[in-house]
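ESCALATION

Customer reports they have been waiting on this structure for their group meeting. Please prioritize. Original submission:
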Amino acid sequence: MQEREARREAAKILGKAGGSVRSKKKAAAVRENGKRGGRPRKAQYFFLSGEGEEGRWESRYCTLPEALKFAEALRAGGDRWASIWEPENTRDDWVVLHNLANGDVREVPLRVITYL
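Update from on-call: job pushed to the front of the queue and completed.
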């Protein structure tokens, strides 16, 4: 048991040392990514998903690729469907959303949205 913990500790130290390496190549890659805007920002997306004619609203902060993956997971199985919406503005207890796929605009009461 002690040998196992010693190996784990050694691997931890080596991994930490390897992860903190600073090279010219790594620095150049970071600068290049910075020119393109850096790490993608997370935005709030709304998802309308359901089965048949029944649907529900959910909201989550994520990048667009993550939103596409999440919607694909919501569609999995049976007669399931999902659409991705972006907020345009919020008024009192309502949010105005537009559909990314077809541009539809809809006002939705905030009380019916589940926040993830």
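Sent to customer with the following note: The mean pLDDT is 88.
Escalation resolved.
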